[in-house]
Amino acid sequence: MLISHKHKFLIINIQKTGTKSLRKSLGNLNVIDVIGPPLPISSKIKFRHHSPMNEVVEGFKEEGWDINRYFKFSVVRNPWDRYFSFFTYYKTKLKIYQETKEPLNDNRQKQKKNTLDLFNGKTDLQILTSIIEKYPQQQKYLIDINGDVVMDKIGQLENISNDFNEFCEAVGITQTPKLLHENKSVNQRIIKEELYTEELIDMVAEKEKWVIDKFGYDIDFLQA
What we know:
By secondary structure, the chain is an alpha/beta fold. It has helices at 19-27, 53-63, 79-99, 106-119, 124-134, 139-142, 160-170, 192-195, 198-207, 209-215; strands at 2-4, 9-12, 34-35, 71-76, 153-156. Helix 3 (79-99) crosses helix 4. It contains ten helices and five strands; from the N terminus they run ββαβαβααααβαααα. It starts with a strand and ends in a 9-residue tail after the last helix.
């Protein structure tokens, strides 16, 4: 997550929704005071890279900051695209870990083991099923301790440039930085439409009902 005390905003980073692009673009402006680390290097850290809102609320209380004074922003994504993005991300990581000879720190070793375990003896269909079952739906990142969605603005990855500009205007960033696109995974010739079965399509539809209903997402697979 990202916190700016000067501009009074916080950004909830949902996995696979362009979060690295936001971090890179805003980081270049020197307006970010807190950047949640991407890896869990310590259990004592209040704000993680992908901290959900309920954890952020508690962290703000511990720090004595008034969260009501901060503009709350996040980005969501077509859920079928998002889970497929997890799949291609781990496919890319698998290739890297299979080929690298460089020593890895403890966190990277853990990620390597989890990646190898995810693919060990499984078909692509089984892997995508495991991913859909494992990762929280997007709504979970945006609710407070009472279960209410409390964001001031929720952008969409499919419209990220316009939504990012509107966010910058709302928090008083007068010179909107160019949004830097990061973390492009290698597709490796796997086609979403061929991987998704009717059962998996329905599984995502049920799990991500909130974001689908609110933002009108469908299964047209318009985003690569």
